[in-house]
Write a structure and sequence with these properties.
heterodimer, A: 7 helices, 80% helix, B: four-stranded antiparallel sheet, 11 helices, globular
């Protein structure tokens, strides 16, 4: 709906938190891309930049929180306006969490001692991260365009992230069992993989909140999920069987 | 067999018929049509809010419920309005008795220039509801208590009603309306002349009153409608645009005109 509020400063207030959220989302996406490159290329300087960049994300979140609370107190928004403010507030906290996970990824990059054995897994991690970056971009586009269908697509994409996480979990566990010297590095990679998997969940939540913002209804049914790592048991026999 | 009967009683209680229902109601003042084919059910023991921009017909519609529009000579009402199943525009209906069953509170508190006691006792006296003086006193005190005013005026019931504050006067009018033991109370912007504290007192009172009465309120305050009502009806240019659960109307209205109006947008 393109109609404007009679009190034009109300429009300005709403536009402002929306712009801040898009800016925050863009920044998070960029941070994740840099953290991934840093991991891939062992670029410690870039990882350091990512650590610093998180402050800007946190500042934007604070700003969105302050502005949203002010709108709630002063404008008492209802209906679509209310959904807009409350959902934007929730999305900002999801983005902030994604920022934290990214920061954690950058921190681990500086401590990982890589071994030839698990270089392939890093490739999978990079692809997983790229998928999440794409999800963030699409989720923000869906929010900006108030497109519930596009948001639903983003929710469905998260299953792919979960599946990559399953693969990585299995791979990294195998490397650790094969050679105890791999354990330190693989543990860090496993945490990074888990963090990226969590980022996917946060983006899926942003998409779900966009659907509510647009339609006024929460999407029915559970979204497809594929994270099986909590039930995964791998024994030495499995590895030996696979080798045979 | 006994169990089956019990179950039947329960099912019937769950689908309570509306206490008032309007069907295809048209109201016109001379040639100007103020209400255009409105049908609406008022559920019992709930608060129903009528909202809409000035001149949309919500007050006119409210006044149909106890035939207050009869007092305007150019006003013509057609369609059907039923109260407890009975057509209130039927020729046999005694309008004075009807207005005792369906009371009204107006925008501006209008106490009679009489004592607080006589203001409340007025209705029971003309409708001959009190058996004796003690009974009348009982009715007055109970009504003042129900209107949340008794504690503030108990020691000066013989003082003039017009000497009370605005909020107290409005509660006095509510006490006057409930003294004749109505089932429905119509309120036409009862808080628009009151400060936030007096408004909160009346809103709190309405919440308690709905246990015993059905309330229909016209209000210009969206926040008030959202706070106190269970059902909200949005009127625009004499038409009922949307009617439904208040929660739904204020979080996810169906009609874009409702959305625009409640969120203060230019349609």
């Amino acid at each position: 709906m393109n109609t404007q509020h009679i009190v034009s400063s109300f429009n300005d207030d709403l536009n402002q938190i929306e712009t801040l959220l898009l800016e925050m989302g863009g920044l998070v996406e960029q941070q994740l891309a840099s953290a991934t490159t840093a991991l891939h290329r062992e670029d410690r300087a870039l990882a350091k930049q990512v650590l610093k960049g998180d402050k800007r994300i946190n500042k934007l979140e604070t700003k969105i929180n302050e502005n949203a609370v002010k709108i709630l107190a002063l404008r008492q928004p209802v209906a679509a306006d209310l959904r807009n403010v409350v959902m934007t507030l929730k999305m900002a906290s999801h983005l902030e969490r994604i920022g934290d996970y990214t920061k954690n990824m950058a921190r681990r990059t500086n401590t990982i001692t890589k071994a030839e054995a698990f270089m392939g897994s890093i490739g999978t991690l990079v692809r997983m991260s790229e998928l999440v970056q794409q999800m963030i971009k699409s989720a923000l586009d869906a929010y900006n365009k108030r497109d519930a269908d596009a948001a639903q697509d983003v929710r469905n994409t998260d299953e792919g992230v979960d599946q990559m996480h399953n693969t990585l979990f299995r791979e990294l566990l195998t490397y650790m069992m094969e050679d105890v010297r791999n354990i330190a590095g693989c543990m860090h990679l496993l945490f990074i993989a888990k963090n990226i998997e969590r980022m996917g969940d946060h983006v899926a939540d942003i998409a779900q909140e966009t659907i509510f913002l647009v339609t006024g209804e929460w999407p029915e049914g559970k979204r497809p999920k594929g994270d099986n790592t909590s039930k995964m048991i791998i024994s030495l026999d499995d590895i030996q069987n696979e080798e045979e | 067999m006994g169990i089956v009967m019990d179950m039947k009683i329960k099912t019937e209680a769950a689908v309570k018929p509306p206490i008032m229902s309007a069907k295809n109601v048209d109201v016109s003042y001379g040639k100007k049509q103020a209400i255009d084919n409105v049908s609406l059910d008022i559920p019992e023991n709930q608060i129903t809010a009528l909202i809409g921009p000035s001149g949309c017909g919500k007050s006119t519609f409210l006044r149909c419920f106890n035939r207050m529009n009869d007092t305007i000579s150019t006003c013509k009402t057609t369609g059907e309005i039923r109260f407890a199943g009975q057509d209130i525009y039927d020729k046999k209906v005694d309008v004075v008795a009807l207005r005792a069953r369906i009371g009204m509170v107006f925008q501006k508190a209008n106490p009679f220039p009489k004592s607080i006691f006589d203001n409340v006792a007025y209705g029971p006296r003309i409708h001959d509801l009190a058996e004796n003086k003690d009974h009348l006193k009982d009715i007055v005190i109970t009504s003042l208590k129900r209107a949340g005013l008794y504690d503030e005026v108990s020691d000066r019931l013989d003082e003039s009603g017009t000497g009370l504050s605005g909020g107290q006067q409005q509660r006095l009018c509510i006490a006057r309306a409930i003294a004749v033991d109505p089932q429905v109370i119509l309120m036409d912007e009862p808080c628009s002349a009151l400060d936030p504290i007096a408004t909160a007192v009346i809103e709190d009172l309405m919440e308690q009153m709905k246990e015993k009465y059905t309330i229909v309120i016209v209000t210009h305050s969206m926040a008030q409608a959202a706070r106190i009502s269970q059902k909200t009806a949005f009127f625009h240019l004499g038409k009922l645009v949307e009617y439904g659960e208040t929660d739904k109307i204020f979080t996810n209205p169906t009609d874009p005109r409702t959305q625009n109006y409640i969120s203060g947008k230019i349609g």
